[in-house]
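Hi all, a correction to my earlier message: I attached the wrong file for PEGA domain-containing protein. Here's the right sequence:
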Amino acid sequence: MRKKRLLSIFVLSFFLAGLFFQPQPAFAADNTGTIKIFSEVKGIEIFLDEKSQGQDMAELYGVEMGSHYVKAVKDGLVIFSELVNVAPNGTTTLLIKDTGQIKEKLLESKYKEQEEYKNKKLDILLSKSVHTVGSAYTGSTYFPGYYSILGSSWTNLSSTASEVTDWKIIQGGVQQLSDVQFATLVNDTNALKKYQEEADFYSTKYGIGAAVGLIGVLGLLGGAFTTGDTQIGLLTLGIVGSVFGLGFMATDTPPSHHLVSPGEAAKMAHEYNQKLKTKLGLPEDYEPSP
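and the right structure:
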């Protein structure tokens, strides 16, 4: 009797163990595959079945067999989406091309950034067109007779002709900048130092002229209240001092020459514009329409 009871307990335990420990349906290694992604667009986030897999993922391992939805997102926009089928132990390959349609779609989403670039973009305008290799120039609407030497092909500039009579530094297409404003924007410390040295020189010159002129005025006043040789001497001193002082002060204005050459300014403006594009997330070759 006891043996039967033990046997019954053993059979029941074996049956229950079979219920709890039977193999569960799972996707073993034989039932998974790999999705390999080649992308010409950088900075994209990959999603698998609406779940983020990370940025710029090249391979997705251990993907369950069957159909899956893969999409790529950049700057909040879906630039690629496709249904793919993953075979057991197989590799599914996807190619995300950087097409003109994708570039246009991304640009359309950056309207504010484009407007900011247009307002802050630097340009160098010449008063006459110049001979170059492989470059074309755009006339300025707000500065008639001036031509831009910047743009997507500005680096092909080979030389500037001697016929150039004037050039301007423009921001946003409408605002003319002084050399100091330009040097501050592009962080040209050499030009700023040069400007400060010239300003200090002319300030000192003005001070000397003012002092000599004051002596001359005092001489004239003193001559008005004296007679004889003393009067003649004071009047002479007053006239000479006043003329010399006023002449010295008349030349106290710094010359209106530029602190850098047009070529140097164009290079610095180009570098500034490229950094601005990067900051705003715009393509390196982006240039607004004239």
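Sorry for the mix-up. Helices lie at 2-20, 100-108, 111-120, 179-186, 189-224, 228-250, 262-280.
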